[in-house]
Amino acid sequence: MKLSTRTRYGTRAMVDLALGYETRPVSAKDIAQNQGVSRKYLESLLAALRNVGLIRSVRGAKGGHMLARRPGQITLREIFDALEGCDGFVQCTTHPQVCERAKTCVTQEVWAQMYAACMEILEATTLEDLARRAREKTPSADMYYI
Fold it and tell me: pLDDT digits over 54-67, tens only?
């Protein structure tokens, strides 16, 4: 299994917002610069995260983006679902009717178990956990890489 750039970059942006949660909105320009992501691509990720209510935008000269809830209340599962969807790793595990082999497929159950195990880890990990790790790994916590 590979994680898409949407999930990787979106998670990095959310950690940036978690690190600044108590202090200020963070501009898309700053996030893009911190993470080495194009601003245009980042804006599309931020829009998807805003559409599901994980972040909110603040207008004005000191505006930017902020988490909609405390970092400890946002799981990686929510970010994953917002950016990847929640159809499983293989569509037939959540929509068996799309596959003519669903009733006899010997791998469908394995893919479903694999997805469930991964989602369990994502549900147990919050942005607060990742922000704490970023602070531990990077003394200034202004720049980090995941």
Answer: 999 988 888 899 99
Which one is the CATH code of 5-137: 1.10.10.10, 3.90.79.10, 2.40.110.10, 1.20.1630.10? 1.10.10.10
Integer Rg of the chain from CA: 17
Q: How many Cβ atoms sit within 10 Å of the Cβ of residue 75? A: 18
Query: At a CB cut-off of 8 Å and minimum separation 6, what does 142 contact?
Result: 19, 34
pLDDT, tens only, 73-95: 999 999 999 999 877 778 777 77
No. of H helices and E strands in the chain? Answer: 7, 2
